[in-house]
């Protein structure tokens, strides 16, 4: 199977998945979301791959939701049932990556913003380039943080840090800070994040594949024991805030490069 924005390279028990929309930003369009979901699902019956590296380009991992994607804009005019299905695509994408039995490592250069942060949280480890950063701009855009990201973020950094990252959403979380908070597990020199992630993947691939999978499954079961119960309305909250006046104002302000004027609508 071939994809336009995602490539998969294999070397023995290790696979490298690369995101590249060719625009230097890797913004999350509807098409890229579908492709990344399909790639994750392609590993479901793969018993030969023990470790997977997911990375972007040297400039960016993912710039977040593509606010100019005409397909995403058109979805807002569809019936409520269709909009709910489409709004849940991000949660299904992240769940598909979390459900991969192989050991997964996200390598981030440049930035992982919004959707990029959410995807990285669904993987087992995060390696950042020294100059890279995370950012969650959803609240600043009048949206809730969806895609199942909140419990995953709390598992890594705790509730107070999670609130700090999400509510103070225009603040960048540098690689150094992410490492100190437990959001990243390693920091590599700029341009070397994927190489370091590949080294870790090779180490993991040298382990017995069955015990790698069973151990990952056991850890995830404990860490995520209450996740689905606590955020079962994750998609609905995203839909609700997507319809708000504040979200519309935030998008218009973003496109016009001005400061938004929020009203609580």
What name is given to the CATH topology? 2-enoyl-CoA Hydratase, Chain A, domain 1
Major sheet size, sense and barrel closure: 6 strands, mixed
Number of domains: 1
Structural class: alpha/beta
Q: What are the segments in which pLDDT stays under 50 over at least 5 consecutive residues?
A: none
- The rounded Rg comes to 18 Å
Give the N-terminus to C-terminus distance in angstroms. Answer: 45 Å
Order of helices and strands: EEHEHHHEEHEEHEHEHHHHH
Strand order of the largest sheet: 1-2-3-4-6-9
Per DSSP E runs of 2 or more residues, the count of β-strands stands at 9
Q: How would you name the CATH homologous superfamily?
A: 2-enoyl-CoA Hydratase, Chain A, domain 1
Q: Which shape, going by the Cα principal axes?
A: globular
Short structural description:
By secondary structure, the protein is α/β, with parallel strands linked by helices. The protein contains twelve helices and nine strands.
């Amino acid at each position: 199977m071939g994809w336009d924005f995602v490539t998969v390279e294999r070397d023995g028990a290790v696979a490298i998945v690369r995101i590249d929309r060719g625009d230097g930003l890797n913004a999350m369009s509807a098409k890229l979301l579908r492709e990344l979901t399909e790639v994750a699902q392609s590993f479901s019956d793969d018993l030969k791959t023990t470790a997977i590296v997911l990375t972007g380009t040297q400039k960016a991992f993912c710039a977040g939701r593509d606010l100019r994607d005409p397909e995403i804009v058109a979805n807002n005019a569809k019936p409520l049932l269709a909009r709910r299905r489409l709004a849940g695509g991000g949660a299904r994408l992240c769940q598909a990556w979390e459900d991969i039995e192989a050991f997964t490592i996200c390598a981030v250069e440049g930035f992982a913003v919004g959707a990029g942060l959410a995807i990285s949280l669904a993987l087992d480890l995060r390696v950042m380039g020294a100059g890279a950063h995370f950012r969650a701009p959803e609240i600043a855009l009048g949206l809730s943080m969806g895609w199942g990201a909140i419990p995953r973020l709390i598992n890594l950094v705790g509730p107070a840090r999670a609130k700090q990252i999400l509510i103070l959403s225009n603040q960048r979380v540098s690689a150094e800070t992410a490492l100190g908070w437990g959001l990243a597990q390693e920091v590599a020199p700029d341009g070397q994040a994927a190489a370091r992630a590949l080294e870790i993947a090779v180490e993991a691939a040298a382990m017995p594949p069955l015990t790698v999978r069973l151990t990952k499954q056991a850890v995830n079961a404990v860490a995520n024991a209450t996740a689905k119960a606590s955020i079962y309305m994750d998609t609905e909250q995203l839909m609700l805030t997507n319809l708000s006046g504040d979200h519309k104002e935030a998008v218009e302000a973003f496109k016009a490069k001005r400061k938004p004027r929020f009203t609580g609508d």
